[in-house]
Each structure stands twice: as structure tokens, then as C-alpha cells.
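User: quick one, sequence for these C-alpha cells?
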């Protein structure tokens, strides 16, 4: 029986006792009227408290729901601002490919584009290709100089990104290489990471770490810095996407502990990108 039903039953019984007692039929001795009144009042107090509790709980849920809605509205606005910026600044000949859950978010794309456009003939290396590759390609085309070298462990996605680059007519500035994951030794541990000939890479201005995906291994993106650190120019930026995830936060902690010189750069975006600058 629910709390409400039990209280209703108790009220009914007490009302019956009171009515009968007042009518001259004392059911539980000479104190039945006082006792009945007391229990009646106590039940009423319990009901009032229960009512208040439900009321507060409903109010709290409503307030939390409203706060979540406001946050969502602000995020949508922020992402729209990012898209407007990209179209305004890059003026692509064709619509940009759609952003989705797997891609970087427009607010990060905006800041990435700003960073790339602020550098002279930059070299950008990306782990995990997609719309980010096309956006950086468009920046380089606009600037007329620079190179984007993107690596993808999945040949299917490498191919899709290549098609995107061709569509946007930026293949001269951005290239995607299929690099399957292979076991590589870092310190005393084996890691699964892109099969890249690091020694053949040019010096890097911007490193975008958006792969491999987390289902490939724990702390999947950790190897990026140990394996590419020496290839980063002084002042190079390192962006680790999806920084709200616990794996990425642990990776950032390890990088900071192992490369104390790198500077954490405040970088507020919705996906929680973690940004570092090499000194
Ligand atoms: C986080 S995604 C990279 C996204 C990319 N930087 C972008 O902004 O579009 C990491 C990897 O997931 C794979 N991937 C890309 N799109 C995907 C999708 N829609 N579903 C599952 N995996 C995807 C690709 O192999 C890619 O290298």
C-alpha cells in the first residue's frame, strides 16, 4: 500500500472513531476523543510535511531542468556562432560537411581556424581525420601557404576525408594518410598507435590529437606527445580534443608530469579541448 493510501485509510478510521465517540459511542475508553483528536492532528501534520516534500522535490527538478535547458541553449548559440565565423572567414565554395558527434565542435573549429590563420605557412599534423582536416585545408588555401598532414587508422574514414578535401578543393593543402595502428614501445610499455614514419615528418606548428578512438585501448591518445614531442617547433600548440572525458584528463595529467615545460593554455570550448603550448 502506498504512503498516500495508508494515510487516507488512517484518516478514515480516525474520522470514524471521532464521529462515533462524539455520537456517544466511545470505542477505546474515556480518552478516545482526546486520543483520536491527537492522532488525527498528527496524521494531518504528516500529510502536510509529505505535501511540502513533494512540492520541494518537484521545484528542484524543475529548476534543474531549466538550468540544463539554458545550458543547452547557450551551447547551441555558441556552436552557431562558430559556424557563422567559419563561413564568414573561410568563405567555402561549397557548404561545409556536417558536424556530428564524432567530429570536432564548431566552437573548437573556430579557434583552430583562428590559430592556423595567425601563423605563417604552418604545418599542422592531425591524428584522426574528418571535418577538422577540411577546415584546416580551407584555412591554408585562404592563406595560400602551409600543409596539413592528417593520419587515420581506418582506411574507410581516410577515404571519406580525402573525398571531402577534393570536394572542397583543398587537396593541395591537406593530405590524409591511412596509418593502421601498430604496437609501439614507449618507456616500459607497449602501445597501439599509428604506423607513422615520424622521422620523415616536417617540424610541426599545430598538433591536433583527435584519435585513435578510445575503444582501441585505454588512454589511446597518450602516445601522441611522447612520439611527436621532438617534432614540435618551439611555441607549437597541442590540442587534445574531448578533454571532458576521464581518459583525456589522465592523458593531460601524464603529459604535464612528463613534459613539465609544456604550458596549459586556458581554452574554453564545449567539448573541453585541452590545449598546451610547447615553450
Ligand atoms: C574523433 S574521430 C576524428 C574526427 C575528426 N577530427 C573530425 O573533426 O571530423 C576519430 C576517428 O574516428 C573515426 N571516425 C570518424 N567518423 C566516425 C563516425 N561517424 N563514426 C565512427 N568513427 C568515426 C575515424 O577513424 C577517425 O579517425
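Assistant:
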Amino acid at each position: 500500500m502506498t504512503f498516500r493510501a495508508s494515510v487516507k485509510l488512517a484518516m478514515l478510521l480516525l474520522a470514524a472513531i471521532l464521529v462515533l465517540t462524539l455520537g456517544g459511542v466511545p470505542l477505546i475508553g474515556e480518552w478516545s476523543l482526546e486520543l483520536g483528536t491527537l492522532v488525527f492532528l498528527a496524521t494531518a501534520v504528516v500529510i502536510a510535511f509529505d505535501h511540502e516534500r513533494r512540492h520541494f522535490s518537484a521545484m528542484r527538478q524543475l529548476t534543474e531542468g531549466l538550468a540544463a535547458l539554458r545550458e543547452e541553449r547557450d551551447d547551441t548559440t555558441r556552436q552557431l556562432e562558430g559556424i557563422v565565423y567559419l563561413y564568414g572567414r573561410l568563405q567555402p565554395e561549397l557548404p561545409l560537411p556536417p558536424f556530428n558527434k564524432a567530429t570536432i565542435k564548431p566552437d573548437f573549429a573556430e579557434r583552430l581556424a583562428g590559430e592556423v590563420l595567425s601563423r605563417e605557412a604552418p604545418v599542422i599534423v592531425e591524428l584522426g581525420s574528418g571535418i577538422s582536416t577540411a577546415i584546416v585545408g580551407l584555412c591554408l588555401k585562404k592563406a595560400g601557404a602551409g600543409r596539413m598532414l592528417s593520419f587515420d587508422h581506418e582506411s574507410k574514414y581516410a577515404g571519406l576525408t580525402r573525398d571531402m578535401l577534393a570536394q572542397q578543393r583543398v587537396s593541395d593543402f591537406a593530405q590524409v594518410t591511412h596509418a593502421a595502428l601498430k604496437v609501439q614501445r614507449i618507456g616500459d610499455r607497449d602501445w597501439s598507435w599509428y604506423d607513422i614514419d615520424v622521422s620523415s615528418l616536417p617540424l610541426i606548428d599545430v598538433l591536433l590529437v583527435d584519435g585513435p578512438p578510445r575503444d582501441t585501448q585505454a588512454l589511446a591518445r597518450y602516445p601522441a606527445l611522447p612520439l611527436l614531442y621532438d617534432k614540435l617547433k618551439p611555441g607549437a600548440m597541442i590540442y587534445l580534443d574531448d578533454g571532458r572525458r576521464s581518459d583525456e584528463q589522465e592523458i593531460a595529467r601524464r603529459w604535464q608530469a612528463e613534459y613539465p615545460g609544456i604550458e596549459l593554455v586556458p581554452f574554453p570550448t564545449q567539448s573541453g579541448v585541452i590545449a598546451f603550448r610547447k615553450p
